[in-house]
């Protein structure tokens, strides 16, 4: 079976599973929105989730990006036993490090909250501190889960890692429905601890079936750990820089009217929905493939796989981006506007979503390009380019927030993502030579042309249908659904007729997914 065919099949499975997970994720967000809306409780909760990210995002990102290439190298050159030994030692050393950081974070929680949310005072401040202390231990579990995920994906087992978001969301939804009325947002924080534990635990049976056996091992001088540290340092720095970016966004947003932080969060969740389904699926599958090509020094296969991933993201995310911009208000209204989430919440979230959607495709491309460097064990280049992009984002934040307020923060993020993507394309071309950029440009132009036609069509179709149905939620949902279907029916034929490769990939994907459902 060809690499491209295997990639299409694996990506198809991940997309389906991720879609199910994201649907549950939306039920979670809808439930939280109905319970808490854009209230101070959600502002405190969203800000509290930033604290663990500041302390641990760099560690977990480093693990996620370094496990696969190093595990792949051990697996192919020294065998399964050595690769699993590396996993056990990494679990032990990372576990010790994250536990220590957790205790430090709990001790200094009030100072951390004051740092990330200087405008928070009184009960809002105290609640954020309490939520932070509850959420900090989850990062130990997340680090372990990332290690298990990296090992499974390196061995091209993608199904279970793609499913772990489903029980996570079910646990949080259950807590919100059963306990939010009695314990408030605190119940959600405790449910996340249990949910992250489930994520780590459910991957172990598959690993054990593949021959893995857990053995407690802590050796900071281990060769594999040293490789992780060497590769992780630039990732740690790069993620730390990205965290500064998030910090600046949240600090500025904390000075905007109440609900601005929550609106940014809801809009970002919607923006990341498409990325989580499509971009993450392609990136997840292509990363071990690129790592294998890199270990085998197969440049032709590397470039071919990279082009496939880039084209796939362009053809999928560009129409989604345009659709999100055109239909942002009805999407938010249908998904979130109920309970405490009122018209003002919809208005605020729609502003942020419009500007976030501008950079959606760039985010997807940036992830694939960063993984291409990581697969070659080059973590410095993405760090440098990411730092430049963050600098651009911070400067634009300070400028655009004066004119667009909430929208300025989202627009700055999108512009910075586009800037980072161009930098990564240029750096990759310098590193490996030709990357068949002409073909990528052609794919972009075809996808953009088809997306613009689709965007214009759905704009008029939605307005036409809305004027002819009663003003009720059920009719609005049906109108939105019908408009999206019309958009897909306009976009897909244009792309398939204009690009033979897209047509072939589409056929393979549909055939494979259909075969899976028939077996069920």
Overview of the molecule:
The protein has helices at residues 3-36, 40-77, 80-107, 109-116, 122-135, 138-154, 159-163, 165-183, 185-201, 204-209, 223-254, 260-295, 299-326, 328-336, 343-358, 360-375, 380-404, 406-432, 437-466, 473-498, 500-519. With 520 residues, the protein is mostly helical. It has one domain (3-514). The radius of gyration is 23 Å and the shape is globular.
Main beta sheet, described? none
Computed over alpha carbons, the radius of gyration is 23 Å
Coarse structural class: mainly alpha
| Number of helical segments with 4 or more residues | 21
Pfam families: MurJ (PF03023)
GO cellular component, one term: plasma membrane
Main location: membrane
Protein name: Probable lipid II flippase MurJ
In brief:
Involved in peptidoglycan biosynthesis. Transports lipid-linked peptidoglycan precursors from the inner to the outer leaflet of the cytoplasmic membrane. The protein has 520 residues and is mainly α.
From the structure above, extract its key features.
520 residues, 21 helices
Helix and strand arrangement:
Elements: H1 3-36, H2 40-77, H3 80-107, H4 109-116, H5 122-135, H6 138-154, H7 159-163, H8 165-183, H9 185-201, H10 204-209, H11 223-254, H12 260-295, H13 299-326, H14 328-336, H15 343-358, H16 360-375, H17 380-404, H18 406-432, H19 437-466, H20 473-498, H21 500-519
């Amino acid at each position: 079976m060809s690499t491209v065919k295997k990639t299409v099949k694996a990506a198809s499975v991940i997309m389906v599973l991720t879609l199910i997970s994201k649907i549950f994720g939306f039920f979670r967000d809808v439930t939280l929105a109905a319970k808490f809306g854009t209230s101070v409780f959600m502002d405190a909760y969203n800000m509290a989730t930033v604290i663990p990210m500041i302390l641990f995002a760099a560690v977990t990102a480093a693990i996620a990006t370094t496990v696969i290439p190093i595990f792949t190298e051990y697996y192919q050159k020294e065998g399964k036993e050595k690769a699993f030994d590396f996993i056990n030692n990494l679990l032990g050393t990372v576990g010790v490090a994250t536990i220590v950081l957790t205790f430090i974070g709990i001790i200094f929680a009030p100072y951390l909250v004051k740092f990330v949310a200087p405008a928070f005072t009184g009960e809002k401040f105290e609640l954020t501190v309490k939520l932070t202390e509850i959420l900090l231990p989850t990062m130990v579990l997340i680090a372990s889960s990332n290690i298990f995920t990296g090992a499974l994906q390196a061995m091209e087992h993608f199904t279970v890692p793609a499913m772990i978001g489903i029980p996570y969301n079910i646990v949080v939804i259950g807590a919100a429905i059963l306990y939010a009325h009695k314990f408030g947002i605190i119940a959600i924080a405790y449910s996340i601890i249990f949910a992250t534990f489930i994520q780590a635990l459910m991957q172990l049976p598959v690993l054990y079936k593949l021959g893995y056996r857990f053995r407690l091992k802590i050796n900071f001088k281990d060769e594999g750990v040293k490789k992780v540290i060497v590769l992780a340092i630039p990732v740690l720095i790069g993620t730390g820089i990205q965290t500064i970016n998030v910090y600046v966004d949240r600090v500025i947003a904390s000075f905007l009217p109440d609900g601005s932080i929550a609106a940014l969060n809801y809009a970002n969740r919607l923006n990341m929905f498409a990325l989580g389904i499509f971009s993450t699926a392609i990136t997840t599958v292509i990363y071990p493939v690129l790592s294998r090509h890199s270990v085998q020094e197969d440049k032709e296969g590397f470039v071919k796989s990279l082009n496939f991933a880039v084209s796939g993201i362009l053809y999928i995310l560009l129409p989604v981006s345009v659709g999100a911009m055109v239909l942002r208000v009805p999407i938010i209204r249908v998904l979130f506007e109920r309970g405490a989430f009122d018209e003002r919440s919809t208005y605020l979230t729609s502003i942020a979503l419009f500007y976030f959607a501008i950079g959606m495709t760039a985010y997807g491309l940036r992830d694939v390009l960063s993984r291409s460097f990581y697969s070659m064990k080059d973590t410095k280049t993405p760090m440098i380019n990411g730092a430049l992009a963050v600098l651009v984002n911070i400067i634009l934040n300070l400028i655009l927030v004066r004119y667009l307020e909430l929208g300025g923060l989202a627009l700055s993020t999108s512009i910075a993502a586009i800037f980072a993507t161009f930098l990564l394309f240029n750096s990759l071309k310098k590193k490996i030579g030709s990357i068949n950029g002409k073909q990528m440009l052609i794919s972009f132009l075809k996808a953009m042309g088809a997306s613009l036609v689709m965007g214009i069509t759905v704009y008029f179709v939605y307005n036409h249908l809305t004027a002819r149905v009663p003003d009720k939620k059920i009719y609005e949902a049906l109108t939105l659904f019908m408009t999206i279907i019309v958009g897909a029916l306009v976009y897909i034929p244009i792309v398939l007729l204009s690009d033979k490769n897209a047509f072939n990939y589409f056929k393979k994907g549909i055939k494979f997914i259909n075969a899976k459902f028939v077996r069920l």
